Amino acid sequence: MTPEYRVEGHDKVSGRMKYTADLQRPGMLWAAFAVSPHAHARIRKIDTGAAKVVPGVKAVLTASEIGLRRFGRQLFDWPILAWEEVRFVGDRIAAVAAETREAAEEAARAIRVDYEELPALLDPFAALEPSAHILHPQYDSYHFSFYADKPRVTRPHPNVQGMRVLTKGSGDVEAILRAAYRVFEHRFVTPRQHAGFIEPRATLVWIDDNGIVHIHSTNKTPFSLRDQLAHVAEIPKESIVVEPAAIGGDFGGKGITIDEFPCYFLARATGRPVKYVPTYADELRSGSTRHRAYITLKTAVDPQGAFVAHSSKVIFDGGAYAAAKPAPWLLPGNGYGAIPYSVPDVRLEMLSVYTNTLPAGHMRSPGDTQTFFAWEQHVSMIAEALGCDPIEFRLQNAVRDGDTTLIGETIRRPMVREVLETLRDESGHGAVLQEGRARGISLICSHTGGGTTSLVMRLSASGGVDVVLGTPDQGAGTFTLVRRVAAAVLGIAPDRIAVRRGSTLEARRDPGTAASRVTHIVGRAALDAAERLRTELERRSGKTLRDGRFVDVTLSSDESFEEVAARACADEPIEVVGAFDNADHGSSTTDFTIAALSVEVEVDRQTGAFELRDALLVADVGQIINPIAYQGQINGGFVFGIGGALLEEMPIDEDGKVMTLSLGEYKLPTIMDIPKFRTIYVRAPDGDGPFGTKGAGELSNTPVAPAILNAVYNAVGVRLNEFPITAERIFMALHASRTEFKSNDG
Is the pLDDT of residue 249 over 70? Predict the structure, then answer.
């Protein structure tokens, strides 16, 4: 298949595309918020008098006006406006609506709050102490969607947000570890990070004359947003319409926003539309982040170097609220990556913990980024200790067809051997480089997400096809994907197919854009709809659609697609619904993609300064529907991985304040940070998506940090157990008297 223009491409490059921050409504007001300067404090009194007399102010709301209302994706533990207590710097105290943004911000600054400061728990270890202050004593009373009709999980400590303990094999992993030939234990730390999107998470809420609430939002899960607001506001879902809006990038960070909720209450109080556009300081101070994680890995091997048992403990800093997490166990993603190694006996313990820091949520490859960073250094360290080549050691322990991941997911036809052998042959693996230069590798496994979705496809008498779906396109090319799949089935030019996102009132329900599932489930729904439409046209015409024309059994008579459409749709358009639910196809975990990365670095031993020289990614792929879009996902993911590995971090000071409140301090990668990057694709037999596609959106970012650190070690002999990787950290490790990494050889 050949490349084509993106459906929305011309509007984007011409500037005609309207994002939420661009939208206006007659009589629109602006929102602003008063927020807590304390990480943990009791609210004694809120004085809004000075705010209410600021010229242009139309409403000032606190929790006393709207009531104690909490929101969430699974656990509803985050107050719309703080009630009695604040739990992180940036927690919202009051909401203001005014004629101008400047007036709203002035009024928010004029609000006075009398606080009683309380002890702040700024890391999960302090929060897990037996004597630690309980941050959410009402936890068991919070609405929890997943556990609405079933017993909740017992938590080992009141400050645990969520947890998951998984075992595989005999169940007595500790006994196997004690008796094993050798055991290796290593510890790692990963940082708190922001998704780094450029478009802010803007919101516009208005209520029409019939009482219907309309929301324009950057949220990429519109049906979930509708349901959450219905619960919080105690109004019917049918009274809420989430309107289609362009999303200018996501990177996993726009699955949830809190702004729609206070804006709704402001719109209700004023009877006017209310818009909120945060600054980057607002976003970095209080937007949901990637979880900081503390990871301990312990792996046993036999005399031949085969993995025999593994145990992990991962503690995630969940921040002040768990509301941003969609998984029922309240961890980022599955809480643990799909590790592409075969280990017969496993015990995994994962905890997310309440702290007085900004709430953590989902970001591209949630859980996987933390896990692969640790695992791929862990594996290289074991290989070196055993005197094994790192690629051969990975090949020896890799999953094979029918094996399960560490969290029990079945891997179908893994392409580990093909990927690693290609990497070995094409990367210059094993070649001796000049002093200070070396290569490092990493191996990852990425799942193709599943779910349930449906869409509507409509054929008109003109021969044009309209598709309406509920899936937001956050920049990945979803609309172009749907058009291309439909065009291939119907045998018509892609530009004959118009694709658009409908509102939650018009479109059929969709789970939203996440988990590398859109090509899989939306593509399969589009395939289903196009096949249904083709079948209906063949039935009505009595002919078979072949190469864009309808032919009879003798091949002596044919008609164009347009001719058949004009006759079939003379009275009314033909409408079909395409649907897909991967659970109906014998798979709840769907497919996996294997990728391996080789990175070459040059390190200055005196200063720790380093430079990325070259990178090669090898990945198994199925059918590629749009080559340019696919390569864009791979290239973009690699650049995203560079930013996370080398630059991006949100440190918290001793008072609980985020120390990077601008993009000048929270640095994103530029072209100057990117090395030469090559890709080689190994063709897999098939995939779960339409025409045999596989996922790509979270494939090339997770291997970057561990590959670079393995290369740094090979170049100068020091390891870091934390990223981002900086010259300062390398310098400190080079000149430290001892390394933090030690093997426990049992």
Answer: yes
Residue closest to 122 by CA, chosen among 644, 645, 650: 650
Residue whose C-alpha is closest to residue 465's, from 565, 345, 540, 360: 565
> Cβ distance 667 to 678 under 8 Å?
no
- In this structure, is residue 740 part of a structural domain? no
Query: Can you tell me the distance from the alpha carbon of 688 to that of 379, in angstroms, rounded to the nearest whole number?
Result: 29
In order of 24, 200, 288, the CA distances from 254 in angstroms are: 21, 10, 9
DSSP 8-class letter at 521: I
Strand-pair partners of 70: 79
Task: Assess if residue 654 is contained within a domain.
Answer: yes
**Stretch (H or E) spanning 109:** helix 101-110
Q: How many helices (H) and strands (E) does the chain have?
A: 18, 28
Grade residue 740 by pLDDT with cuts at 50, 70 and 90: very low
Whether residue 69 is found in the same domain as residue 211: yes
Cβ atoms 469, 501 nearer than 8 A = yes
Instruction: Please check whether residues 656 and 613 belong to one and the same domain.
Output: yes
Distance CA 156, CA 335 (A): 17
Q: Of 364, 361, 329, whose CA–CA distance to 348 is shortest?
A: 329
Sign of the C-alpha dihedral, residues 227, 232, 236, 241? Answer: negative
CB 316 within 8 A of CB 327: no
Can you tell me whether residue 638 is helix, strand or coil?
Answer: helix
Rounded (10°) CA dihedral 376, 379, 383, 384: 60
**Domain of residue 507, CATH code:** 3.30.365.10
How many structural domains are present in the chain? 3
Do residue 209 and residue 236 come from a single domain? yes
Q: What is the pLDDT of residues 324-375, one digit of tens each?
A: 999 999 999 888 988 999 999 999 999 999 999 999 999 999 999 999 999 9
CB burial class (10 A; 0-12, 13-18, 19+) of residue 643?
buried
The boundaries of the domain holding residue 657 are 292-448+591-735
Find how far residue 530's CA is from the centre of its chain: 29
90 and 234 co-located in one domain: yes
Handedness of CA 140, 145, 150, 151 (dihedral sign): negative
CA distance to 133, 258, 459, per residue, from 124 (Å): 12, 24, 56
Q: How far is CA 524 from the centre of its chain?
A: 21
> 580: helix, coil or strand?
strand
What mean pLDDT, rounded, does the chain reach? 93
- The vertex-166 CA angle with 160 and 168, nearest 5°, equals 165
Q: Other C-beta atoms within 10 Å of 102: how many?
A: 13
Residue 742 pLDDT greater than 80, yes or no: no
Residues 6 or more apart in contact with residue 394 via CB below 8 angstroms: 341, 379, 383, 416, 420, 443
Structure-block tokens of residue 505: 């009132």
Q: What is the DSSP letter of 606?
A: T
Q: Is 129 domain-assigned?
A: no
Residue 720 φ/ψ, nearest 5 degrees: -115, 140
Which residues are CB-neighbours of 221 under 8 A, at least 6 positions away? 255, 256, 472, 511, 512, 513, 514
Please report the pLDDT score of residue 564 as a whole number. 94
Residue 648 near residue 639, CB atoms below 8 Å: no
Bridging pattern class, strands 452-459 and 610-621: unpaired
Residue 161 lies in a domain: no
CB atoms within 10 A of CB 717: 13
